[in-house]
Amino acid sequence: MDFVTTLVSSAYQFGDAFAFLVLSACGLAVIFGMMGVINLAHGEFIMCGAYMTVFAVNWGLPLPLAIIVGSLFAGLVGMVIERLVVRRLYSRPLDSILATWGVSLIASQGTLILFGPTMRGVGTPLGSFMVGSLSFSYYRLVLMATAIAVLLLLYLVFNKTRFGVLARATIQAPHMASALGVDTNRIYTLTFGIGAALAGLTGGIYAPTMTMIPTMGTTFIMEAFVTVVVGGADVFIGTAPAAVLLAVVKASLTSWQGQLAGQIGLLLAVIITIRLLPKGVTGFILKGRV
């Protein structure tokens, strides 16, 4: 391969890994990073969005609209789960782990019983383009653009809107927010629903690229947790830099030695980063600030 082809290939692999990490982590960043709920059902929200997207396409909706339907459906399911299960466990993090793990088992096994071990998906749209002797998917470029758009949207919603101010106030000082007249239960439900909807968006947008099986969410959950943990306490500051760091490691090793080496390198990078930066990327960026 010539230099230009190699450069484009490397940039494409980095962008693909970055998009996967960001989109995997964005919903978890809201639920785990902001609310402190260790949501082991995150993968099942992704699966929920993917399945609903495929159903919507089969009902005749165009793919972009079907993805929106899948995301909204996952958000609605998330709000129901928050009302029935999670709401009672905000001060009991270990119990929330057990409860959301139970939800994940019920969701995956229920999907298996209802729809079988696999389901016909939808084809990857938009086709591909050539650079030298290599072929690249246009749809992967859409995933990269979507990841950047989601990061920007999250920042705007939680930093520039009234809901974002109320959400951050409720999560940081719920008793004070309640004393000032904020309906904290409603804020918790909506925030959890936004996290679930973002997970559903991830499932919907990746549905054309994956095999539809009840356990498909496990493909995302490891990358989601490591990205949020490496990012640190402030999800809006830490998630994007953490995704960049991990994407460089994963893309480089995958290109060099294959997918297994990329996964191993990703986990080693997480261990080293947390050892050197116990507060994650956020702690490093905010170092020295009051």
Q: Notable features of this structure?
A:
3% strand, globular, two-stranded antiparallel sheet, single chain, 290 residues, mainly alpha, ABC transporter involved in vitamin B12 uptake, BtuC, 12 helices
Write structural notes for this entry.
With 290 residues, the chain is an all-alpha fold. The protein has one domain: Orthogonal Bundle (ABC transporter involved in vitamin B12 uptake, BtuC). It has helices spanning 3-34, 42-58, 63-84, 93-115, 138-160, 162-172, 174-179, 184-206, 218-231, 235-257, 259-276, 280-285; strands at 128-131, 134-137. Strands 1-2 form a two-stranded antiparallel sheet. α6 packs across α8 (184-206) and α10 (235-257) packs antiparallel against α11. The longest helix is centred in the N-terminal third of the chain and has 32 residues, at 3-34. The N and C termini lie far apart (50 Å). The mean pLDDT is 87.
